[in-house]
Amino acid sequence: MKQSLFLLSFLLIISCDGKKSSDPKMLSNSSGNINNLSVVIDNDLWEGNVGEAIRNTLAAPVDGLPQDEPLFNMSQIPPAVFSGFVTKNRTVLKVEKGGEAAVKIISNVYAKPQKLVLITGKTDNEIIQQIEDNSQKIIAAFKSEEIKEKQRRIGLSLHNNNNLEEKLGISIKFPTAYRIAKEDDNFFWIRKDITTGTTNLMIFQLPYDAIKKDDSLVNQIIKLRDSIGKAYIPGPTEGTYMITEEAYAPAVFETIIDNKPAIETKGLWDVKNAFMSGPFINYIIDDKINNRLLVIEGFAFAPSVEKRDYMFELEAIIKSLKIND
Predict the structure, then answer these.
(1) What pTM was estimated for this model as a whole?
(2) Shared domain check, 281 and 195
(3) What is the superkingdom listed in this entry's lineage (predicted)?
(4) Would residue 208 count as lying in a domain?
(5) Which CATH number goes with the domain that contains 54?
(6) Packing angle between helix 49-58 and helix 135-154, nearest 10 degrees?
């Protein structure tokens, strides 16, 4: 009997060990700069039409910047050397020629967090077609991963401001490097000094019917921005203030912020009667529950330097917004 019990116990231990061995492997932390994309692809594909299609999609200019800057900085890696630490980048695009035409979006393959997009096709044309047909889905997958990473980094040192919740009924996560430059009953101007200028946030609310979705939407948004700029964002000398750049019509999109419909506007601002300008990204959020429109905007003043990463930080901050119902 003792021998039988010992044998049964031994078999149970072996069985448990076997189950443990089938558990998912422990993944190391991913790495990489924000908006840096690893592209795993054969050299001949990268140098040909497939590589051109990838660059046209993922290195396309970011909307709303005064000069062309790519959505992502890309590093091409031949499959033969894609191993070890090279696999740990947070965002990876992998192209394999020979399989059925498809696009697969996979999380945490070689590291965590990580987003890998696998594109397959039997011919160059099939691969190119998959890139073009799924371009928005691919961009959204990578951008979402990078927004989350930027928000994680911002969360390491958060500014604490209870007035936003008390006066506007919102919470938003921004770093301690920012300061409250101006605060009114329903208006906040938040800014951070950078090497060549400033990055800024404006948050305020409007009556629910202040903006109408019709053919004049762009003009309404411009008129709104200009009135707020005149009232709250002065320029360097008396009588100057921020307005919307007249020479370039802003781009307008529909999106979602905090599970609420919103109008996203990207464009350029300048200062009336002064030589200052830069990009802005504006969201008008349909806060029907609270019977208002909530407006939040990020804008940057950074002359003579690239501005993509500054605007990306502002977008990540804005997308951390939570509205109290």
Answers:
(1) 0.89
(2) yes
(3) Bacteria
(4) yes
(5) 3.30.379
(6) 50
Question: Does residue 30 form part of some domain?
Answer: no
* Residue-level pLDDT, tens digit, the chain, 325 residues: 445 544 444 444 434 444 333 345 688 999 999 999 999 999 999 999 999 999 999 999 999 999 999 999 999 999 999 999 999 999 999 999 998 999 999 999 999 999 999 999 999 999 999 999 999 999 999 999 999 999 999 999 999 877 999 999 999 999 999 999 999 888 999 999 999 999 999 999 999 999 998 889 999 999 999 999 999 999 999 999 999 998 888 999 999 999 999 999 999 999 998 889 999 999 999 999 999 999 999 999 999 999 999 999 999 999 999 999 8
As to burial, measured by CB atoms within 10 angstroms (0-12 exposed, 13-18 middle, 19+ buried), residue 146 is buried
H or E stretch covering 140: helix 135-154
- Total structural domains within the chain: 2
Residue ranges making up the domain that contains 140: 36-153
